[in-house]
Write a structure and sequence with these properties.
Elements lengths: L8 E4 L5 E4 L22 H11 L4 H57 L1
Antiparallel strand pairs: 1-2
Helix pairs in contact: 1-2
């Protein structure tokens, strides 16, 4: 077993690509500074998590953001749908009241003219 050649492994290059190569044959990598990920570059569902982790709050806040975020969106959507339905009902009732009032007013005014 010791006489077998070492298998090539997948190595990640500094530009982010992966290649099959012997790590000892690659040039030495220079250490770079910490990787900076700007919040506006994060996907929308991860932004809250990155803000929370960046501020050092912890995993509980991340879990709360992941769990309660979609629930909040669902609740706000349900509230908006209810308000839209109530507005539509108010519109229809308003239209009905105006139509009935005009009809009654017109019929009353015609009767009053005939009686004179």
């Amino acid at each position: 077993m010791e006489s077998l050649p070492e298998l090539t492994r997948v190595v990640r290059l500094p530009d982010g690509t992966h290649v099959y190569a012997d790590p000892t044959a690659l040039p030495a990598q220079q250490s770079t500074g910490p990787q900076v990920v700007h919040i506006h570059q994060a996907p929308p569902d991860r932004t809250v998590q990155r803000v929370v982790l960046g501020s050092g709050v912890g995993a509980g806040a991340v879990a709360a953001g992941v769990y309660f975020g979609p629930l909040l969106v669902g609740d706000l959507t349900a509230i908006a749908e209810n308000l839209a339905l109530l507005a539509f009902i108010a519109l229809v009732l308003g239209w009905a009241v105006v139509t009935v009032t005009r009809s009654v007013t017109n019929s009353t005014s015609k009767r009053g003219r005939k009686a004179r």
